C-alpha cells in the first residue's frame, strides 16, 4: 500500500451493547485468535492513527488505537461517528463497525484513493442504495449529522437522503460489499468461526 496517510484516521465503531450477541462485548470478538478490530486495522495499515468509539472505556487496549467516548447516549452509530468527527484532529475518518468482518485492501484502497482525489465523503452503493459502512466521513458532514441527531433521527441511511449527499462520492459496491460479514448474532459469529476448517473455533472471546 502507499505511504502513511495522516489526514484521515481509522475509526472502529464499538459502542453497541451486543444485545443479540448475548451481551458479549463485540469489541473483543476474535477470529483466528485475533480481535476483529485488529483485522480491520491491519487492512488499513496505511493510516497513521486509529480510534475506537466506545460507550465506556474498557480495561484492555486494542493495538495502537486510542479511545473515543461517545458524546451522545442512545444515538447509535450516528452519535459515535459524530463524536469522532468532533473530537479527532484528522479531517476524515475511515469508519468500520467492530462487528463487520471481511474488509480487504482492494476495498479500502478504492475508497482511500477516491478520498485523496476528491476530498469528499466516500461510500459504496449497491442496487439497494448507498451503504453507510465502510465509509469515509469528513468534518464537512458535522452540520448535517448534528441536525439529524437533534431531530432524533439516528437512521444512518437518512444521511444519503439530504441535499448534502449530492456532494458525496458513491462507488459501485455490488461486488465489494459481498465480501463483508456482519456479525449481529451469536449464530453469525459461530458461522464465521467455522469458515476456515469446517469446525467451530474453540476461542470463545
Automatic annotation (TrEMBL):
GTP binds at residues 13-15, 26, 70, 99. It comes from the Bacteria. InterPro entries: MobA-like_NTP_Trfase, Molybde_CF_guanTrfase, Nucleotide-diphossugar_trans. Transmembrane segments: none annotated. Signal peptide: none annotated. It is found in: Cytoplasm. Its cofactor is Mg(2+). Belongs to the MobA family. This is Probable molybdenum cofactor guanylyltransferase. The lineage of its organism: Bacteria, Bacillati, Bacillota, Clostridia, Eubacteriales. The gene is mobA.
Amino acid at each position: 500500500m502507499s505511504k502513511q496517510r495522516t489526514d484521515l484516521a481509522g475509526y472502529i465503531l464499538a459502542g453497541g451493547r451486543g444485545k443479540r450477541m448475548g451481551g458479549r462485548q463485540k469489541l473483543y470478538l476474535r477470529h483466528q485468535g485475533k480481535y476483529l478490530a485488529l483485522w480491520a486495522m491491519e487492512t488499513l495499515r496505511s493510516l497513521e492513527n486509529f480510534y475506537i468509539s466506545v460507550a465506556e472505556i474498557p480495561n484492555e487496549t486494542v493495538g495502537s488505537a486510542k479511545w473515543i467516548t461517545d458524546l451522545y447516549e442512545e444515538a447509535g452509530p450516528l452519535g459515535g461517528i459524530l463524536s469522532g468527527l468532533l473530537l479527532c484532529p484528522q479531517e476524515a475518518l475511515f469508519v468500520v463497525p467492530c462487528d463487520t468482518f471481511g474488509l480487504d485492501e482492494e476495498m479500502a484502497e478504492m475508497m482511500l484513493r477516491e478520498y485523496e482525489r476528491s476530498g469528499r465523503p466516500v461510500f459504496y452503493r449497491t442496487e439497494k442504495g448507498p451503504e453507510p459502512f465502510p465509509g469515509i466521513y469528513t468534518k464537512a458532514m458535522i452540520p448535517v449529522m448534528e441536525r439529524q441527531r437533534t431531530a432524533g433521527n439516528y437512521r444512518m441511511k437518512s444521511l444519503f437522503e439530504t441535499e448534502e449527499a449530492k456532494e458525496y462520492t458513491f462507488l459501485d459496491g455490488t461486488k465489494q460489499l459481498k465480501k463483508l460479514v456482519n456479525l449481529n448474532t451469536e449464530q453469525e459469529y459461530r458461522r464465521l468461526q467455522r469458515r476456515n476448517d469446517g469446525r467451530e473455533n474453540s476461542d470463545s472471546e
